[in-house]
Amino acid sequence: xxNLLKLTRSYDEVGNIRTFVFETGGLEWQAGQYQYxxxxxxEGEDGEKGRxxxxxxxxxxxxxxxxxRVTDSKFKQALNNLQPGDTIERKxxxxxxxxxxxxxxxxxxxAAGIGSTPYRSMLLERHATGKPLSATLLYYSRDNDIAFxxxxxxxxxxxxxxxxxxxxxxxxxxxxxxxxxxxxxxQTVYISGPEPMVDSxxxxxxxxxxxxxxxxxxxxxxxxx
Length: 225
Description:
By secondary structure, the chain is of the alpha/beta class. It is about 20% helix and about 30% strand. The longest helix has 13 residues, at about 195-205. The two termini are about 35 Å apart.
């Protein structure tokens, strides 16, 4: 199995969010897991040559999607300049931010902006494998640029047990989560977004006795998620 993944195509999602699609190279993963990716040709320090990304595609799609905001960083610009046939180096699959319950027990999925990538993977995989989508998705966005909205709305139409709420222009706080998902205390709460935000909100939710799973996106803050 190769540690190089070949780009097949890329496309804009919304705003400055773009998806890059790679062949799997035989790689297997669980929905919600992540990898470290390296572009060795970037000049500069080693830390500028690599980034962690949660895989936004479902395993059943048989391709690897990296969905990210394209900024002016060296790595993001080099990623955006890749052409079909170009390769990216990848490290081992990591992470336990996964939804493996096959029952209809409800969960709360909290996304801060581009933190929605693991939920696209999870929900599409459960849909593909015939599992219930018993979830309340709270998708917080700084503006109306909501990635994957058409796909998420399509899943809501097909799964009455799935509720999706798009919360525009509001800060992600524990109080807001509690208000928008009032049954949260009896459910597992997943929260994915910028590292400082996830840490802060996680502490507040843990204090209230919540069963919590967290996914941290380095390099983002409340102004850039």
